Q: What sequence folds into this?
């Protein structure tokens, strides 16, 4: 028999990509559920509707990733299981105290997740990249969040300082948990920094985080907040 | 100019149908958000995944109804606004104390909502009926809930009594709030019972509720619970 020529075509993708889909899948599921939960305390129907739509989009991403894992012959739950600890820990450690913090969490969290997916999509097979890019689909969310947050800050300027601090904490926790996952799972670490094989350079991981933090800073500037 | 020949084709549907779509839309949004919120306390990834998928489906129904209202030239938020009070009141009065109660709420609530939609779909224009039937799309949910609840009751038989009482309270509250909405909005009441014009027979509303309660009883029997 011939050796497998195309991993993607044969339906075999490296363990690290399966891991990655599991991590993203559980992250999307949890983000959707948390956002829905936060939407219940949103002030007014407009914000609630918007948060409900965002939550629905996250849950749909989760569905797609589950379907892909299933097509690859994996049990989505089994693949996601190792990532429940770090993802849940992130959310436990970043419970919004009000809906403004919840909105910042959506904006910062979605933004950094998108940048992160974009980084790693470079290193995976075509079918997985296509899926990851679909999950990144631009949505009109951002405009709504920026407008709503700008309005809230204009109404109550001192809130800006609290929200800037909160955003910084979110990024710190996101990076800490990602690092924790990457260090526990060497194959995944290799994938994240584009290395193939042993001897992954940890400095590469640091550089990736630096890029993510730079992009985060630009988003904070859009809100008029100190990064 | 010719008079409007077909309400549905021209995009004009009676006010009562618009009302109905608003009520269903907000009910689906809220059911999705509540279920997502309850999923966060589900024991184990399996139940969480299942509840997340169900919540995603409800939010997608909400999206479709919003899109239809938009196509009909209405602002979905404005149309839903009158129904936030009764729907929120239903949920405030029926907060599950644990995930088993949450699961019963999904099963009972989805079931009665589906039967209710089926009743009223008889009285609306084709396009709206098509949409309502899409929202009813059979899903594999039921099997999962029945199996999970049966397992839980087998493990802890005394729980059956508490869950039966809980289910009865859910139906009572659902009917009370529906009645409240129908009595406040005469056009909607006419639609619910298939009347056209004045002098709607309130007894018809009672008969519809009786049919819904009968179907609810069959679902309870599937769980081995006293209706």
A:
């Amino acid at each position: 028999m011939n050796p497998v020529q195309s991993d993607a075509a044969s339906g075999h993708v490296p363990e690290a990509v399966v891991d990655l889909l599991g991590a993203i899948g559980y992250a999307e599921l949890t983000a959707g559920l948390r956002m829905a939960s936060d939407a219940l305390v949103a002030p007014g129907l407009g914000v609630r509707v918007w948060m409900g739509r965002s939550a629905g989009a996250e849950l749909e991403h989760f569905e797609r990733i589950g379907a892909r894992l299933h097509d690859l012959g994996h049990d989505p739950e089994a693949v996601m299981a190792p990532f429940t600890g770090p993802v849940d820990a992130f959310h436990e450690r970043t419970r919004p105290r009000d809906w403004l913090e919840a909105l910042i969490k959506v904006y910062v969290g979605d933004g950094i997740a998108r940048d992160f997916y974009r980084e790693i999509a470079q290193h995976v097979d075509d079918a997985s990249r296509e899926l990851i890019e679909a999950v990144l689909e631009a949505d009109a969310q951002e405009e709504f969040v920026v407008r709503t947050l700008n309005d809230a800050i204009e109404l109550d300027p001192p809130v800006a300082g609290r929200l800037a601090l909160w955003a910084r904490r979110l990024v710190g926790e996101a990076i800490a948990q990602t690092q924790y996952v990457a260090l526990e799972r060497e194959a995944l670490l290799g994938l994240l920094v584009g290395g193939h094989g042993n001897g992954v350079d940890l400095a590469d991981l640091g550089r990736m985080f630096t890029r993510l933090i730079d992009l985060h800073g630009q988003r904070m500037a859009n809100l008029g907040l100190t990064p």
Remarks:
- Chain A has ten helices and no strands.
- Confidence is low (pLDDT under 50) at residues 1-10 of chain A.
- Chain A touches chain B through 27 residues (CB under 8 Å).
